[in-house]
Design a protein that fits this description.
Order of helices and strands: EEEEEHEEEEEEEEEHEH
Helix content: 10-25%
Shape: globular
Strand content: over 45%
Amino acid sequence: MRYQIQQTKSAIRADYDVTEDGEVLYSATIPFNVKGYKALFSRSGQLVYTIERDVIASLRHLSSGGEKVTDYYSIKDCMGNTSGAIYRNRTKGFFGYYFFELHLDGKEYIIYEIGLGKQGIKLPVYIGEQQIALIEKGTHTANNLDSYDLSAVDAKTAQISSLFCVYYDFMRFGNHGEVSVNSKQVSYVYTGNKKLKGKYNPDWHC
């Protein structure tokens, strides 16, 4: 199953659409995009999830021994109940690397960021050792409006991967509060860690 995630607005507010064959399945809004502290994820105008920066949890992880958790956001359901979290983590050791964890409804998703230069960024999504989705970002962006391609094994995986993608974009590429017209940007990201690069399988398909 293939989807597109397109940022449609970038200024004080940021908006995203998740589409399949041109049909909008989900939309996301960051109401006040100066710091990207909160995003609302909806379907057909109905709130599904809210992701919001959790300062207390971030401080708790900073004070715990050995962990390198950063960018910690809570995931809340439509009733405002905390049902999961997204954050960035790091493997141990001198040659460790960063990756993302998403916990929701008792499942743990691991997402790796792999920069391949002119081939763009690849973000494979795993549960355990099984890859279930792939998010891809190209190198060219117009007017600060980022876009992603998503392949997922099923609709639920697409929903979770899209939620992560909104978080990833405003954390990594959020031009918070900027207004850009008739501009083009080209950026290359390179991953040198061989173990991390090995998480990307160019032959994977769903």
